[in-house]
Amino acid sequence: MTDTTLYNDWLIGLALAAVVVVIAAVLLLMVWSAARRILHLANTALELVVQIKENTQSIWELEQTNKVASGILEEAGEIETHAGMVAEALHKAEHK
Fold it and tell me: How far apart are CA 4 and CA 2, in angstroms?
């Protein structure tokens, strides 16, 4: 093998290595760019999730409201029953 052939083979190897390094660098930059885009979209989605949570909080509180309303309805029924009993007793007392 002559010096010229060895030198040419060395240059070809160097060029191939340079191409591999450039391709790897481009791929790394593409991955980095995609990761930044994903981070940006995730932050935007998180802001929307927080807004949705705040806007739907009242819906989750409806369960407690329904429990209180049911309790009030039961108490009103008992008041009606006792008021009927009092009215009946008064009516009987008037007719004696």
Answer: 5
- The model's pLDDT over 14-51, given as tens digits with 9 standing for 90+, comes to 999 999 999 999 999 999 999 999 999 999 999 999 99
Q: What is the 3-state secondary structure (H, E, C) of the chain?
A: CCHHHHHHHHHHHHHHHHHHHHHHHHHHHHHHHHHHHHHHHHHHHHHHHHHHHHHHHHHHHHHHHHHHHHHHHHHHHHHHHHHHHHHHHHHHHHCC
What does the buried/exposed string (b/e) look like for 39-58 if buried means 16 or more CB atoms within 10 Å of the residue's CB? eeeeeeeeeeeeeeeeeeee
